[in-house]
Amino acid sequence: HNLQVNVRQASLEKLIEFDTLLKTFYPYITLDSLRISASGTNPTLLDARIIITSFELRPRSASNPTPAAHP
């Protein structure tokens, strides 16, 4: 699964905090891409576009004898 998150007018510290939080869920959730630019209305803050990728493992069952990762 992929999720795009758009952040507006965030401090660099908050973006680092978000990245640190995502890392606690590794390897199930990862930051796939990150684009940062200065905010148009306040250049001391940042706008960011973040793509997050996750997957889940399914348990084995009679109908699914081999577990598979689902992106």
Describe the model.
It is a single chain. The chain has 71 residues and is of the alpha+beta class. The chain has one helix at 12-23; strands spanning 2-10, 29-38, 46-54, 56-57, 69-70. Strands 1-3-2 form a three-stranded antiparallel beta sheet, covered by helices on one side. The protein starts with a strand and ends with a strand.
Question: What portion of the residues fall into strands of 2 or more residues?
Answer: over 45%
- Largest beta sheet: what is the strand line-up? 1-3-2
Helix content: 10-25%
Largest β-sheet summary: 3 strands, antiparallel
Count of beta strands: 5
Structural class category: alpha+beta
Radius of gyration: 17 Å
- Output the number of helix runs: 1
Instruction: Tell me the distance between the termini.
Output: 5 Å
Low-confidence stretches: none
Quaternary organization:
single chain
Average pLDDT level: 88
Shape category: elongated
The ordered H/E elements are EHEEEE
